[in-house]
Design brief:
Strand order of the largest sheet: 6-7-8-9-10-11-12
Number of helices: 15
Structural class: alpha/beta
Number of strands: 12
CATH topology of the domain at 172-405: TIM Barrel
Largest sheet: 7 strands, parallel
Strand content: 5-15%
Oligomer: single chain
Radius of gyration: 27 Å
Bound molecules: glyceraldehyde-3-phosphate
CATH architecture of the domain at 172-405: Alpha-Beta Barrel
Shape: globular
Length: 411
């Protein structure tokens, strides 16, 4: 019996299937049931040592077991297992026990419980939704969710997004890139300040050099500031500091801060009010996730976000609202001009009904989320789109075209 520890076998065919499945991104449940009984001693290999190693069922007991490993995902562990099995085991065939019986590619293939493909970077999640109505009722849709909450339908979409991010990040954030961007802006011919107000918002460390180099008709904004008076808040930058450096603008409540740093509506409302009280002008971001849009709660979400600001703000003169649907930020999936206009109009109505007619008429509501040189004109033409908050395209020469699109309504 002690020999069994070393003699659980896997056939070449099954091993190939195990490997194919791993490298196909769908991990099947292929772990010998004997594992549950401890007949294979996995402990000597570090990848097998106790967070998630793999979920599996034993033959006698259909409950799910989990082995845990601190340094490896279950996918990595399975890959390791596939690599090492031939050396470790000989003899009886591997036993496959389905954990889920959803057929794949016409074969009744079982799938691993967690169902997180090996190619998905850490920090990403997989969610599944069962269609509730229509001809495809019961069909399960799988979504891949990025750490910042962006939702994708397929591996190709995820890979395109990751490649885009990698490319953008290669130079992004270097002094050389910042100088290049400022030079492009400084040399550009753009409409005058009374037609379009251009505000450049570099990360904190680049604010001063950008401010020094930037043409005088363009202004700078910080990407965040602390919620109250400065003090012992290590790592935070206060509104007072920005004012002291003559930084006139600050962006607050960006979706990435809301989702990654758990900034609540109330917290953002407090920040907006405090920054305004110190003399800063504020670009306050609001926007719904794809899930919220699909569930029909877009207006409820953006109204709640705006309400939290409205409850703390008495003077809206220095507030710009930036509507940024989370699903459109950095994804290449821009809201259609009709979608943007619809939300902007509703927001304006909300301001009218809940603040006052004057604020509704005078507050600029700008759109953000995959704006680029190609789509800006059509968006800018919409009556309630008063400008843009541009991310990726602001780092490229096409940003000049976006600035120029401000003239569209005047044409
Ligand atoms: O901060 C910028 C906005 O979030 C939009 O980013 P994006 O234009 O790359 O989608």
């Amino acid at each position: 019996m002690s020999k069994m520890k070393e003699t659980i076998g896997v056939s070449e065919r099954d091993l190939k299937m195990l490997k194919d499945d791993i490298f196909d991104g769908i991990i099947e449940h292929c772990i010998p049931p004997e594992l549950s009984k401890g007949h294979i001693d996995l402990s000597p290999s570090p990848p097998y040592s106790p967070p998630v190693l793999v979920n599996y069922n034993s033959q006698e007991n259909t409950s799910t077991h989990q082995l845990r490993s601190p340094e490896s995902s279950h996918v990595e562990v399975l890959a390791q297992l596939a690599e090492t099995m031939p050396k470790r085991v000989r003899g009886s065939p591997i036993t496959k026990i389905p954990l889920e019986s959803k057929p794949r590619r016409g074969r009744g293939r079982p799938r691993l419980l967690n169902d997180i493909p090996y190619w998905l970077p850490s920090g990403w999640r997989v969610i599944k939704k069962v269609r509730q109505k229509g001809l495809s009722v019961g069909h399960i849709d799988k979504y891949f969710i990025s750490p910042s909450g962006h939702k994708f339908r397929s591996k190709n979409e995820v890979m395109r997004y990751i490649d885009k991010m990698r490319l953008e990040n290669r130079e992004n954030g270097t002094t050389a890139e910042v100088k290049k961007i400022v030079t492009t802006l400084n040399e550009a011919e753009v409409p005058s300040h009374d037609v379009v107000e251009v505000v450049v918002s570099p990360p904190f460390v680049f604010i001063l050099p950008v401010k020094d180099l930037l043409r005088p008709d363009f202004q700078v904004a910080a990407q965040n500031c602390w919620v109250r008076k400065g003090g012992a808040f290590t790592g935070e930058v206060s509104a007072e500091m920005l004012v002291n450096l003559s930084v006139p603008w600050v962006i607050l409540g960006h979706s990435e801060r809301r989702s990654l740093l758990n900034e609540s509506n109330e917290f953002v409302g407090d920040k907006v009010a405090y920054a305004l009280s110190q003399g800063l002008k504020v670009i306050a971001c609001i926007g719904e996730t794809l899930e919220q849009r699909e569930s029909g709660s877009t207006m409820a979400v953006v109204a709640a976000q705006t309400k939290a600001i409205a409850e703390k703000v008495t003077n809206w003169t220095n507030v710009v609202l930036a509507y940024e649907p989370v699903w459109a930020i950095g994804t290449g999936k821009v809201a259609t001009p009709a979608q943007a206009q619809e939300v902007h109009l509703e927001l304006r109505k909300w301001l009218h009904d809940n603040v006052c007619a004057e604020v509704a008429a005078s507050t600029r509501i700008i759109y953000g989320g995959s704006v680029n040189g190609a789509n800006c004109k059509e968006l800018a033409a919409k009556p309630d789109v008063d400008g843009f908050l541009v991310g990726g395209a602001s780092l490229k020469p096409e940003f000049i075209d976006i600035i120029k699109s401000a003239t569209v309504k005047k044409e």
